[in-house]
Amino acid sequence: MLSVISTEAYLRQLYLYSVPVVAQFGTPDFLVFNCFRNGVLIKEPFSQTAFEEAIAWAQCTIEEILCEADWTPCEEVWKCCYLCDMAEHCEYNTTR
Questions:
Q1: 49, 58, 48: which is closest to 16 by C-alpha?
Q2: Are 52 and 15 in contact (CB under 8 A)?
């Protein structure tokens, strides 16, 4: 069974995935976790409040990222230069 903390995070993810579904087909009755490993389906009733909270959380997170000004490299240069999607364009990349 999913823990309370991870269930909330997974539900937020499902609510965000449901945005285009809601836009095209309307509100679903349930969100469903498909637990492949043990073959269990967990149905959660769709909550308009939780849906709106997930969208607000995503918008706030995007805004935080866009407002960030300090893009100094992480302490592990290897991660910064090889795992970061922006490494090709980064002034701190020492591998170029």
A1: 58
A2: no
